Amino acid sequence: MGYSVAVVGATGNVGREILDILDERGFPADEVVAVASRRSQGTEVSFGDKTLKVKALETVDFSKIDICLMSAGGAISKEWSPKIAAQGCVVIDNSSTWRMDPDVPLIVPEVNADAIAGFRKKNIIANPNCSTAQLVVALKPIHDRAGIKRVVVATYQSVSGAGKDAMDELFEQTRAIFVSDPVESKKFTKRIAFNVIPHIDVFLDDGFTKEEWKMTVETKKILDPKIKVVATCVRVPVFVSHSEAVHLELENPLSADECREMLREAPGCLVVDKREDGGYVTPHEATGEDATYISRIREDPTVENGLAMWVVSDNLRKGAALNAVQIAEVLVNRKLIQAKRQAA
Fold first, then answer.
1. Is residue 132 within 8 Å of residue 222, measured between CB atoms?
2. Which among 306, 259, 298, 297 has a CA at the least distance from the CA of 140?
3. Percent of the chain with pLDDT strictly greater than 90
4. Mean pLDDT (whole number) for 91-112
5. How far is 133 from 107, CA to CA, in rounded Å?
6. How large is the average pLDDT for residues 106-115?
7. Which residues are catalytic?
8. pLDDT at 340
9. Is the pLDDT of residue 343 over 60?
10. Helix axes 13-24, 322-333, angle to 10 degrees
11. pLDDT digit string (tens) for 179-203?
12. End-to-end C-alpha distance for the chain, whole angstroms
């Protein structure tokens, strides 16, 4: 007997990606329910070779659902995740709402799957920020081998991280520039086409943005609270896939060659690192792929035991949808939940 799965936010970028990945990976679901707001009720979304009609969130009986993959934004999650969880349905949430709650595990399965054990406290599991997810997949093997003291990371984040409206804005602005129409900025604070914007999410009192804060605190929660992290998060005119320039200071020596060979064997990592023209991965190649790609691995001579690297991943997949489905797979494979129909 398979599981019953609800995808909340099924009409959004990440929700549609979750439906695709559930089908691609053959998740053991007898029933998949597409859920969104009332205005999307009746909309049709694809699930493999099937078409699902979207149900309004308020109309779904979650007491009959085993797993809820929540991708409807922070405000919806804050209101609905506890209600859904109270009905015995495990919520895997993509928003930032629950990530730093001490009673909610923050999980990247390749990195800290064992931490999922505490999910019953609130029946909620948090998915990390998209830029954090790919970072910790690359850092985990290095930290285990050599101990990471400090991380300095600059991100190059695609517009899909800000939703469909942001993708539309990049397209419309690019078109407007080519045909000499006025360029309008609605979603972003400045023009995004042929530009970069060093500002993601709101500014905090210390001058960092909330996105930069998220990367710092989430990396510490997932990997090790003793690691020092500083981030600069930048939005770039790319539709899908985030890139990161990562600089590490390690406790113990680790050569670039040793790091390269170790990461080749690490779960979720794919090393493409030839020191020649095109011997690295860009966002274009990573789009639609599950791996976290690592290139440009080299020793940093400016700091003792320093390494530098380039990390790229599809933010809609590993940064959100794939990671959520992988968490659900951990619940099933470790027999941490039982299908309600089977239990009945």
1. yes
2. 259
3. 98
4. 97
5. 9
6. 98
7. 130, 242
8. 84
9. no
10. 40
11. 999 999 999 999 999 999 999 999 9
12. 11
Q: What are phi and psi of 185, to 5 degrees?
A: -110, 120
CA–CA distance, 67 with 186 (Å, rounded to integer): 35
- Mind listing the pLDDT tens digit for each residue in 2-58? 999 999 999 999 999 999 999 999 999 999 999 999 999 999 999 999 999 999 999
Domains, the chain: 3-127+320-343 (3.40.50.720), 131-158+196-313 (3.30.360.10)
Taking alpha carbons only, the member of 96, 80, 30 closest to residue 332 is: 30
Reading the block at residue 99, the tokens are 């990530």
Q: Which two three-digit tokens encode residue 283?
A: 């966002």
Flag whether the pTM goes above 0.70: yes
269: tokens are: 């990592």
Cα separation values, 109 from 122, 137, 161, 330, Å? 19, 9, 21, 7
The angle that helices 130-146 and 256-264 make with each other, rounded to 10 degrees, is 120
Residue 104 to residue 124: CA distance in whole angstroms: 6
